[in-house]
Design goal:
The chain is built from 13 helices and eight strands. By secondary structure, the protein is α/β, with parallel strands linked by helices. The termini are far apart.
């Protein structure tokens, strides 16, 4: 009887331990749970988290597969206040034989945060992407660079400055002054009338300080409104991961109203002579879809303008399958050209 009772207690403890552990994380350390979930998603998708850098800067990035001499690598750049994890749902839907890297931009994710007096312009961001490519031994190879929102603008500007390093560029709802103004662009315009020191978190819907702010942000970037139905503990965990980065995000937003003007990509677009692709959500409330028609005639070689229905600014959340489909179609056009 004692043996059976011991066995029952052992089994009960083995079953109870993970439940108790999850409960503790969920209610007391939700940010750890959120981070573990993101790492699990990356691992499940075959993305390995790595670091590279020098005495000046350390980059964090996710990498899947190794570079191949006969295939172009894809470099993914995320949006404002996001991270490399944004692209995991897309990477897992792309062919497994392609070398892919998703990079944490300066001050985002786990990459180094620029100092208080450092240059935070678009040009500096482009310089750092170039430094990163050199560090991962892709500096002498042409890449397919894909960027979303802020990362979309940086991707386009990188292609304009370094056409010899870019095979093709995909800009997903890039940060640009669209003909139809959204709430965010109105906030940018209002912030422009203030001194940088007067601009606060309240001046940008993407700079969230509380749980309700996180929900409002999701409602503004996503077409689907189901995400706000999650338990508040999930939002608390997500918020705690963001809070340490908020001062930097605020500095970057302030720069968008001074140094980084949102018409910069539009002005540089004629210099983007490599094959280019624009992808936009039909219902984007952050960067209006009218931006596609603004940029299309200005690009030197725009091959595709793909507008996705029932989709907001966060296409990787709303329609990841459709986004992956458009990216790989454009990528394969480059592969076909090489075969010829």
């Amino acid at each position: 009887m004692d043996i059976w009772m011991g066995a029952v207690l052992l089994v009960a403890s083995l079953v109870a331990a993970p439940i108790i552990g999850f409960t503790i994380l969920f209610y007391f350390f939700p940010h750890i749970l959120v981070r573990l979930f993101m790492r699990y998603q990356a691992y499940k998708s075959g993305v390995e988290i790595k670091f590279v850098g020098d005495q000046n800067y350390v980059f964090c990035y996710g990498e899947k597969n190794e570079p191949q001499p006969n295939k172009t690598s894809i470099i993914f750049l995320h949006g404002f206040t996001s991270s490399k994890d944004q692209w995991v749902p897309i990477i897992k839907r792309l062919p497994s034989d392609i070398h892919m890297i998703t990079l944490d931009l300066p001050g985002h994710g786990d990459s180094s945060r620029p100092g208080e007096d450092e240059d935070m312009s678009f040009d500096r961001a482009v310089d750092l992407v170039n430094v990163f490519l050199e560090l991962v031994n892709l500096g002498d190879k042409k890449v397919h660079i894909v960027g979303s929102s802020l990362g979309g603008a940086i991707a386009g500007l990188f292609a304009a400055r370094y056409p010899d390093k870019v095979d093709r560029v995909t800009m997903v709802c890039p940060a640009v002054q669209t003909p139809v103004e959204t709430h965010l662009l109105q906030q940018v315009k209002q912030a422009t009338s203030k001194s940088p020191e007067e601009v606060t978190y309240a001046d940008c819907v993407l700079l969230t300080e509380n749980v309700q702010g996180v929900k409002d942000m999701l409602l503004s970037i996503c077409f689907s409104k189901d995400l706000v139905k999650f338990h508040d503990q999930i939002f608390k965990g997500f918020l705690k991961l963001r809070l340490p980065k908020l001062p930097y995000f605020l500095r970057l937003f302030r720069s968008l109203t001074t140094v980084n003007k949102l018409d910069y990509l539009e002005k540089q677009a004629p210099k983007i002579t490599v094959p280019s692709q624009l992808i936009w959500g039909q219902d984007d409330e952050i960067m209006h879809v009218s931006g596609a028609e603004l940029l299309r005639p200005r690009l030197g070689d725009c091959r595709h303008v793909d507008v996705i229905d029932k989709c907001g600014h966060a296409i990787h959340i709303d329609r990841p399958g459709a986004l992956a489909k458009h990216i790989i179609k454009f990528y394969r056009e480059g592969d076909t050209r090489k075969d010829d």
